[in-house]
Amino acid sequence: MKIRFRSLLAAAAAALLGAGGLFVSGASAGERVRVEEIRQLRESGQILSAEDILARSRALQPGQVVGLELEREDGRWIYEVKLIDERNRVHELELDAASGEVLDREEK
């Protein structure tokens, strides 16, 4: 389940992504992740910044970022980044939000 996260943080991420946006998934239907929670996760070192994740993603897969999601899966925060390469292929990367480790990589 994906929940749109609208806030100053989402606006900042959208600016970083150009036409893309930031989506945040909660644990249950209707749950909203609050700006304060994201900020606390970031400040406590539980997740890396979106800027760091985007830089890592672009280093792994050059292209234009068109999407960024922060999800909670099995008690773990995961960033999902979607990029389009110069041949218009979509690449999806899943990175551990705490370490930046690549967990999965797909071309669609």
User: Which class do the helix and strand fractions yield?
Assistant: alpha+beta
CATH fold name, please? Nuclear Transport Factor 2, Chain: A
Largest sheet geometry: 6 strands, mixed
- On the 0 to 100 scale, the average pLDDT is 78
Tell me the β content: 25-35%
* Helicity level: 25-40%
Distance between the termini: 20 Å
Catalogue the unreliable spans: 1-21, 26-31
Q: What oligomeric state is this?
A: single chain
The total of helices stands at 3
Describe what you observe in this structure:
- With 108 residues, this protein is α+β, with helices and mostly antiparallel strands.
- It has one domain: Roll (Nuclear Transport Factor 2, Chain: A), CATH 3.10.450.40.
- It is 28% helix and 34% strand.
- The chain contains three helices and six strands; from the N terminus they run E-H-E-H-H-E-E-E-E.
- Strand 3 and strand 4 (76-84) form a beta hairpin.
- The radius of gyration is 13 Å and the shape is elongated.
